[in-house]
Prior knowledge:
alpha/beta
Amino acid sequence: MFLSICIHLSKRFQSLLPNRETTKQEGFTDTFGRQHTYLRVSVTEKCNFRCLYCMPEEGVQLSPSENILSKNEIIRLLQLFSHYGVDKVRFTGGEPLVRKDFLDIVQSTKQQTNISRLAITTNGMILNKYLESLKESGVSGLNISLDTLIPVKFEFITRRRGHKTVLDSIFKAVELGFPSVKINCVVIRGFNDDEILSFCYLTKDWNITVRFIEYMPFEGNRWNTGKFVSFEEMKQKIALEFGTLKPEQNGIHDTTKHFRIPGFVGRIGFITSMSEHFCAGCNRLRITADGNLRVCLFGDKEVSLRDYMRQGASDDELAEIVAFAVKRKDFALGGYEDMTGIASNPNRPMIHIGG
């Protein structure tokens, strides 16, 4: 009954939705003309780290296991989204590699969908033993979270040991020839802002991208303006050490402002969600581990695709639900004017949303 009511309500807004044939060609497009071709899929809420900026110190209540999408449900959604133009998928968590059937999910995605680009975001702790299998399965991009180059600080922020293990995984991934190896570093004043230059030196001889991420507010991560370091401040600090940075041409959908330090093999980048958002070119959607579709990282609007699937929705009905949600997507920052609005309103912890 609930499904029938929701489908009926969505049909009342058919003027907002493209018809089936148009959708095949244009995909999921919002009212600002942005076609969504990039899907981030969280496969688990579980993680072997307890990072301060991701999870409250007291931990979080994880969703019951029966609420987490099954492998077959994930593949069904990926088949649906690929039919409507999604050609890039990034698997996230939690830590995706702690899910026992994760490699099966990756391999099935490659075999059963038209998605051409596969990537994962990982903390790198158990990545080493999976690298060959991931490469053979078609994963081309690795984003590895690492916020400090000092072991004792690593243990403080992750509440776990394993700093050398993560570094070893990064360098092995480069040696194995993954096309894209990125380090994601969340910069927090008073914790690791003094290591920005050290991270830059990693790109001197290694073909990696170090991405400095502005600290963003999520429930329980104790964000405040005093801990925030802006893109401009980071860039100026780097320029004082290395001279003028060489900007790279960025695509309309890029979330990162890329630069090269003259003479260095790799590159650096800045994810400026807070100070200079990149929402105008947003082509990303998210599915949480418990099956909710989020059209914006910062917005609190979600719709449970899991519930619709388990209540018997057809692929056509699922496509209408997704299209309707995308049509309601705000232009920027989940409808908030700036980071103050984001910080003062509740949002799910990052461990629930997916990294």
